[in-house]
């Protein structure tokens, strides 16, 4: 048996020169420039720089978003970029960044959202030039046409008194933001910071977040493309679903797929379904899902007040270990989940396909989990407006990572979560050298993902830039 050799002894000093860390994060700063995000932010925040002196507020906002995408958790973490001016250029001080966030009011926040939408349009055009465009969501082994928006709320714990932080329904204390992600790419489309005691099923909040998400979609995709809106049962409020349907009058082809509470009429209908009407459920790859069946309850449950042609579908299956079961589930020995949709039968809207398509909404939990490591897992201030601006920059950071995956990466990394991207690409060390009037960033020849990183930089250089 071969023994394991000892690690070489090292002597640590702090007198190195030309060595930089987090060199891969330069991808994100250059991507923000290439999509026009930095320029759009500068225009949106120009009123905050009346004398034209000091740091450009748009550049400060971009640096904050890059810092969050790189894994920073506090405004002071800007020091990682600021202390490496050879790679990132001049970066604002922590007090300057604080002042910028403090100056962002609701009107300025709307301007930031508009700026991000303009950058998204450029990024999607670049993806189309790249030859692939916005990827499609898949369900049951086939593509779901159009775009899929997933809305969900989450609890953010606060360990100190902050404005509008409140007790949550789970006994904690903090905020209860409502968020919307694009399932096709993982982009953070919109978010609304809310007190911890905000209702999970508040229709007005769902409408606001959906409207902000739709405003983020470029016109060429927002009109003429199917847009599926998915939520859990919190989004089954009649007012919200009526709004989703009304959007069609504005030329936006929206459909919904939302969870639905298992009420007594629903239980009665489930028990009344003949065995021959239960059909095998499907998995995401199109294969049969072991121990699961699907049936349609449309016509068996009163859906008065819901949009016309609303369908109700149920799935039952053997519960997996640790599943939370209602008394009805325990009585039946099976776990039941019910949802509503207005996707018609024509065009492949079978109950089996619609059920597996709706089950894909669970991926929003992954987006939220990753989002909590990309900014909105903790909020920096006692001031609610500052925290709202922080949430918006967190969504920008999520977008930058999503655009990087779509535009610059291939294979495994094109589907990687932020933690993997940081470990393999963003946090890599490099040596900064000058020669031939050029600044070179030299990545170690032994770094396992050196080829992927250099390829990403080359692709970034080749991206078409927006005019002006």
Tell me what the structure shows:
The protein is α+β, with helices and mostly antiparallel strands and 468 residues long. The protein is built from 17 helices and 17 strands. It has helices at 26-34, 37-44, 57-69, 79-82, 85-88, 94-103, 106-130, 203-216, 219-222, 238-246, 264-272, 327-332, 351-359, 363-376, 384-408, 418-426, 450-462; strands at residues 19-20, 137-139, 142-144, 147-153, 156-157, 166-167, 173-175, 178-182, 188-192, 227-231, 254-260, 279-282, 288-296, 311-317, 335-341, 430-435, 438-443. The strands form 4 sheets. The chain has a 9-stranded mixed β-sheet with strand order 9-8-4-10-11-15-14-13-12, sandwiched between helices. A hairpin with a 5-residue loop joins strand 12 (279-282) and strand 13 (288-296). Helix 7 (106-130) packs parallel to helix 15. The longest helix is centred in the first third of the chain and has 25 residues, at 106-130. The chain is globular.
